[in-house]
Amino acid sequence: MAISALTVATVKPQTLQTHHPKPSLSFKPIANCISSTKRPVLDVGIGLLAASVVALSPLEATATRIEYYATVGEPNCELNFAKSGLGYCDVAVGSGEEAPFGELINVHYTARFADGTVFDSSYKRARPLTMRIGAGKLIKGLDQGILGGEGVPPMLVGGKRKLRIPPALAYGPEPAGCFSGDCNIPANATLLYDINFVGIYSGNAK
């Protein structure tokens, strides 16, 4: 059975292959980035060091889930909802700078489906992810959830936030992270993220 890549490349055991997709993808790779044969899952350099592959129920199309173990989950908090439908709450409010629009930032994250199944986590790679915020390279829910807007306060360095991202701000009606007919993200999926804003990337142009 083929293991699907969350963003772009075929993942061989113990090997993460990289690929630089065309500029119009939902998240341009910066470091440790993979791509998809259909839609990128997050072009957040998402790797598949999976513990197991779990088949979805018929109600969740024919997608394939990659289930992680030993990932980090933040304490629960009560969600607030923006007009866009984005749910958010702060586990810890940071004390540093806001994320600079269009620049690179470093974050740790754990990503789950609405039922709590973890499908990706930067903690599995033991280092934060560097990604460009506010430039249309991420799904809309992550841009709004970190940068703020429409009533959502911006995250500050050191902050930890939970996000509930509806399909309209994620990947919408099509599956994502597909490879060889298997898709890691089912259509119309609501995604849950624990975001830890580690810092602003030191290599940004001054």
From TrEMBL:
* Gene3D superfamilies to which the protein is assigned, alphabetical: 3.10.50.40
Q: Which GO terms describe its molecular function?
A: peptidyl-prolyl cis-trans isomerase activity
- TM annotation in the entry: none
UniProt EC number: 5.2.1.8
Q: Specify the PPIase FKBP-type domain's residue ranges.
A: 102-201
Q: Which UniProt keywords apply?
A: Chloroplast, Disulfide bond, Isomerase, Plastid, Rotamase, Thylakoid, Transit peptide
Reply yes or no: does the keyword Oxidoreductase apply.
no
Question: What's the catalysed reaction?
Answer: [protein]-peptidylproline (omega=180) = [protein]-peptidylproline (omega=0)
Report one GO cellular component. chloroplast thylakoid lumen
Designated name of the protein: peptidylprolyl isomerase
Q: Which organism is it from?
A: Vitis vinifera
